[in-house]
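agent> Task received from the user: take the single chain below, predict its 3D structure, and emit structure tokens. No templates, no multimer pairing.
agent> Plan: (1) validate residues, (2) run structure prediction, (3) serialize to tokens, (4) report one or two observations.
agent> Step 1 OK, no nonstandard residues flagged.
tool_call: predict_structure(input=
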Amino acid sequence: MAFDPDSRHEFDQFEALQNSGLLDSLYESLTSKQRAMAHYKSLSPTVRGRVRALKRIQCETLKLEVQFYKELSKLEQRFADQHQKLFAQRKAIVAGDYEPTSEETSWYGNEEEHADVQNSLTKLGNEGDAPAESGASSLTKTNCRGIPGFWLTVLKHAPLICDAIQPADVPALKCLKDIRSVAIESNGQPGFQLEFEFEPNEYFSDTVLTKRYFVSYELKEEDPLTYDGPEVVASEGCKINWYPEKDLTQTTHSKTQRSRLSGEKHTVTRTTTNDSFFQFFDPPKPANSPKRTNATTEQKVLEDFDWGQYLKERVIPRAVSYFTGESLDLENEVDDPDDFPFQLPR
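)
tool_result: status=success, residues=346
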């Protein structure tokens, strides 16, 4: 193997700076990305050329990933019908259209779960916060139909979503019968549609509210090495047909004023936007040009995309685990990037 004098000289310079302590002081004032870029720029042209060759190889591996995810999407569609059949069974139980058999209601740890609930109720009653007997009767009540408030509870237990639910939204969300995701394609653009099915209610006439998300599987031409799998690139909401004076997303204020010139009275109407879960169906629109993109709007767009993926990939398929709170343990298992600080070679 040929000896590269540039590499040897560069290593000697780097080692001398490191031993002097100057490099440590400089690196401490930089972010991790700045440190990495500074190190790369300190390399000789020969070594940087080799790094660029590695980038080309990495780009080819990412192209394979694109093909992998496209094939994975086809595989998901093969199982979609089976998933929908199971979700239809879930919907029937939640709505009270089907009563599970005793065999179907058995689950691991039922006795332990029942004992824990009884112990908690007894303790609560003994502390005087609530009568244990009345608490138990509310949990064991058998005259209700299905599982009341199932999807409202699921959403309230989903950390990414729960804060968006306002007190005024609760009565409407109690009427939520089902949430499902179906694959769609529009003008060659693949994606998925979230469907929120409601019982007849006093707020809007729609039985189903929809939210569409479109997904890109391709590498970004301007920065292909940032590829991290399919990503949502656009979303579309739907119009909600609110009944008069029942719109949860905005409030209309009317005020009578008298003209200073004519003395005649006239009514001024002003509309204010409310925080509401139902704003989800009116997503923010990204700017056509990156130069015109507002940082706040961009953040809201990204949050909206996160919501869509979160509902599709986690909440809908694992709804009962969110209902019981068991999924919250998984939600908390997130790696902290600060656990892996940049370290200089020693």
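agent> Step 4: summary for the user.
Residues 45-101+145-246+278-333 form a domain with the Arylsulfatase, C-terminal domain fold (CATH 3.30.1120.90).
agent> Done.
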